[in-house]
Amino acid sequence: MIKVENVTKKFGDTVVLNNISVTFDDKKIHGLVGRNGSGKTMLMKCICGFVPVTSGRITVNDKEIGKDIDVPESCGIIIETPGFLPEYSGYRNLKFLADIKGNVKKEAIMDAIRSVGLDPSSKKHVGKYSLGMRQRLGLAQAIMEDPDLLILDEPMNGLDKEGVSDMRKYLIDLKNKGKTLIIASHSTEDIETLCDTVFEMEKGSLTQIR
């Protein structure tokens, strides 16, 4: 599904991604591990089309990012802390985003919110959400269009023990439904539990370790 070929990303003389080549097969969960600043988030941003590569190419379903398409088709994304309008409820935030594209029905939004353990009828403003609740809402936003591909940077961030358990079960369920997931996590347990393949990023270089 995703092919990264000889990708390098530089900012001036600083090399953030160093000649990376990797293929992420579909219908699997792929894990990215590595320290802060190793390049995990930058690789995700390049795959999503948020940041152009300096050299090399990235294709998703045989379409080159930045050439054939700007962003991957049918893709749900969480990169860094999800941003929402603090004075809106969770449902109203997702409805606002859905209306921009105009292709997500009310029931699909409500189902997505329920599926991550939140109440779609709650009037509580997102500005009063805990970090874990914001993370759950971010996942609801990522899945509300029923995408084939999910790119999730630290999806367990801010979740309590029960929330982490719920999220793991949910992500495995998505894979079982035929979705493809790329997950970056600092948690060894998350990676061990969830991932079919694991890649380690260090100083901009990528190595498969499982």
Describe the protein.
By secondary structure, this protein is α/β, with parallel strands linked by helices. 32% of the residues lie in helices and 28% in strands. It has helices spanning 40-48, 90-101, 106-115, 131-143, 161-176, 188-194, and strands spanning 2-11, 14-24, 29-33, 55-60, 63-64, 75-78, 149-153, 180-184, 197-202, 205-208. It is globular. It has 2 domains: 1-74 and 148-210, P-loop containing nucleotide triphosphate hydrolases (Rossmann fold), CATH 3.40.50; 83-146, no CATH class. Helix 2 (90-101) packs across helix 3 and helix 3 (106-115) packs across helix 4 (131-143). It starts with a strand and ends with a strand.
What's the gist of this structure?
The protein is built from six helices and ten strands; from the N terminus they run βββαβββαααβαβαββ. The chain is an alpha/beta fold and 210 residues long. It has two domains: 1-74 and 148-210, Rossmann fold (3-Layer(aba) Sandwich), CATH 3.40.50.300; 83-146, no CATH class.
List the helices and strands and how they pair.
Elements: E1 2-11, E2 14-24, E3 29-33, H1 40-48, E4 55-60, E5 63-64, E6 75-78, H2 90-101, H3 106-115, H4 131-143, E7 149-153, H5 161-176, E8 180-184, H6 188-194, E9 197-202, E10 205-208
Parallel strand pairs: 3-8, 3-9, 6-7, 7-8
Antiparallel strand pairs: 1-2, 1-4, 4-5, 9-10
N-to-C series of helices and strands: EEEHEEEHHHEHEHEE
Give me the count of strands: 10
The CATH architecture of the largest domain comes to 3-Layer(aba) Sandwich
Give the total of domains.
2
Helix content: 25-40%
Secondary structure tally, helices: 6
Shape estimate: globular
CATH H-level superfamily of the largest domain:
P-loop containing nucleotide triphosphate hydrolases
Q: What is the residue-averaged pLDDT?
A: 94
- The assigned structural class equals alpha/beta
Spatial extent as radius of gyration: 17 Å
Roughly how many Å apart are the termini?
A: 19 Å
Uncertain residue segments: none
Most strands sheet: 6 strands, mixed
Beta-strand content estimate: 25-35%
CATH topology of the largest domain: Rossmann fold
Q: What is the strand arrangement across the widest sheet?
A: 6-7-8-3-9-10
CATH C-level class of the largest domain? Alpha Beta
